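On clarity, I found the account of how folds are encoded harder to follow than it need be. Since the whole study asks how a given chain folds, the encoding of that fold should be made plain. For the editor and my fellow referees, an illustration may be useful. An entry of this sort, consisting of the sequence and the corresponding backbone structure tokens, reads as follows:

:::
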Amino acid sequence: MQISALDVEIIPPEKARHRANAVHRFEDQSPETQATLENIHFVILGAQKGGTTWLSDVIRKHEDAYIPVQKELHYFNVIDHYKNGPEWYASYFKDAGDKKILGEATPNYMWNYATPAEQNAPDTDIRLHDMAPNLKALLPNAKLLACLRDPVARTASAYYHLATRARFAPRTPIRDCADRFGLLTMSRYDLQMDYWFRHVSRDDLKVIIYEDEIKPDEAKMNTANEVFRFIGLPEKEEHPAIFKRSNDKEKPALAWLRQIPGIKPKPFDWTRPIKPGERIAQGINRRLPQTVQNMLDIKISQADRDMLQEYFEPHNRRLEELLERKLPW
């Protein structure tokens, strides 16, 4: 499959380079592990930068639900995690107590169509890009949730996030990194959702449109209660996390500081304790005045926005047909 405007090849999941050697099935697990897995009632699939942190915060604050402290487990999409097996996965839910509605949120689970560069990236964790069969085999009771945001806005937000994580140099033209890090492919909702709908019933996958159902304050409580009903939680009249801001954006100077040799992190090297170079970068970043931060701001150009808008337009229309609803983009 070829993208004409941006010249990016996309590989379907069935032809993914990396695949799990074995499928872990619910019925093959120990009674103790089964007892945990059958209580995993929901998985937030994505999309990254689409409202998943807000959604997971809202569910986490419900007294009858449990999400692990580490929100993103990356079990089904990172091969080394999947090799650890279901007991490793179930161990993240050991502190759930008597709560019976368990779940997790890993936004990369939606990402199954990927470019060759994304599949062959020299990262420390090899990614799996055909996750649906593995997830459904292990979590028979799980309802799935997908948050979709204007793909141009999602791509722009992901671009900023990736730049501050030093995945590419700040202000790199979008066409020079469009085939990496899911920047473009994670926004191809028509492909990603079609994949999931081919593997799960529409009754088991709820799609939430960010601009209609999360962004407007007047829609938030209704959206929360629809999600609660969907995953088996009691509805609420009010909720402490509804209007709480999620994911504060890092300041742009960090993107520049993390390009310095000795400070620049390796891919996915965000473990604790914080490395000395990262501690230095954060210290400098905190002390820079806002006028300097403004000068260092990172945005995709208007020309790149226009190119993305033109590119996504036909795919958005295909998504409307797939979802059988009008979209606000």
